[in-house]
Design a protein that fits this description.
Blueprint lengths: L1 H13 L5 H12 L4 H7 L9 H29 L2 H5 L16 H14 L4 E2 L5 E3 H4 L19 E2 L2 E6 L4 H10 L4 E10 L11 E11 L4 H16 L4 E8 L2 E10 L5 H7 L4 E10 L1 H6 L8 E8 H8 L13 H4 L7
Parallel strand pairs: 1-5
Antiparallel strand pairs: 2-4, 3-4, 5-6, 6-10, 7-8, 8-9, 9-10
Helix pairs in contact: 1-4, 2-4, 6-12
């Protein structure tokens, strides 16, 4: 029996192949669950006691020889395997990579962030599920205030104090509560309002709101900031501010940019006036500053807010706001070349 094992050892040490398939056959023959080594271990109990030591050593030597042969040949064959055998015919046409694209909302948001970051504005973010205080009350909109009807709100049914934020002004409240002036921040994010879905409106959309608070901030500072922004984003330097009303700013204004009347599209977008409304703004109401723990006698500030979706429609000539949330691949592929 021991002589048989020695012959198997010689066979294992002499084995050579250039094929991984043949190597696997060899491995199964010697080391497999039904291989020769298992049979030899099973016959160990039939060996006379005086031969068991030599028999055991011979089996272990056979096992080591077979295992070493498998390991060395496998490493050698894997290292010398050609690229052609791994990847097939290298001369055949390659599979094209499906390159993704940034979403138009992301493109516009990044543009806005970049423009304001050049003049010292940082980015602040907050939760989309808000409480009544941060979304309404702290912004000079106490309970039963009629201006709350301007924003049809999604409330959480189990808790009337919890809602989906209707504007990113709630982020500004949180920022003012945790930071002291000077404050210069913009707050981009998604907001929700219970509105009918159509080609021009949706129940969720994206906003970016800005806030600047410091000593002796004036309306002239606000206008200069907005002038800079519209020039950088649209290439249009002519703006106008029309009186308006927002509960959290006083005075308040709507901002229009002069788009011009050079094409038929310009006439449609501006309704023949050449002016296009892009955002709302105003000086922060002193009550809002006091609600957030900022001394309104020492500090003043301005705020502004705009819809990112609306600007995306304008800059990329998109006719239907619903396209921004439908994930239509044919639509999104148009923006592959955009940065």
């Amino acid at each position: 029996m021991i002589e048989k094992i020695h012959k198997l050892i010689e066979e294992a040490e002499a084995f050579s192949t250039q094929s991984l398939e043949e190597l696997e056959v060899f491995r199964i023959k010697f080391l497999g669950k039904k291989g020769l080594l298992n049979d030899l271990f099973a016959s160990f109990k039939e060996v006379p006691n005086e031969q068991k030591k030599d028999f055991g050593q011979a089996i272990n030597k056979l096992k080591s020889a077979a295992q070493e042969k498998v390991n060395s040949l496998k490493a050698s064959l894997e290292n010398t395997t050609s690229d052609a055998s791994l990847f097939g015919d290298l001369s055949r046409p390659g599979e094209p990579f499906n390159i993704g694209a940034r979403h138009p909302i992301s493109l516009v948001k990044n543009q806005i962030i970049d423009i304001f970051s050049r003049v010292g504005f940082n980015v602040s973010e907050g939760p989309e599920v808000e409480d009544d205080w941060h979304n309404f009350t702290a912004l000079n909109l106490p309970e039963h205030h009629p201006a709350r009807d301007m924003q049809d709100t999604f409330f959480i049914q189990t808790d009337p104090d919890v809602l989906l934020r209707t504007h990113t002004s709630s982020v500004q409240v949180r920022y003012m509560e945790n930071n002291q002036p000077p404050i210069r921040t913009i707050s981009p994010g998604r907001v929700y309002r219970n509105e009918a879905i159509s080609g021009r409106s949706h129940c969720f959309f994206h906003q970016v709101e800005g806030l600047y608070i410091d000593k002796n901030v004036s309306f002239a500072d606000l206008k200069q900031t907005l002038q800079y922004f519209t020039t950088e984003l649209f290439g249009k330097s002519k703006i106008r501010l029309r009186p308006s009303y927002f509960p959290f700013t006083e005075p308040s204004a709507e901002v229009d940019v002069y788009w011009g009347l050079e094409t038929e599209t310009d006439y449609k977008m501006t309704k023949g006036t050449g002016w296009l409304e892009i955002m709302g703004c105003g000086m922060v109401d002193p009550n809002v500053l006091e609600n957030c723990g900022i001394d309104s006698k020492e500090y003043s500030g301005f705020a502004f807010g705009m819809g990112i979706d609306r600007i995306a429609l304008l800059l990329h000539q998109i006719s239907d706001i619903r396209l921004l949330s439908e994930n239509n691949m044919r639509f999104l592929e148009q923006f592959k070349s955009a940065l």
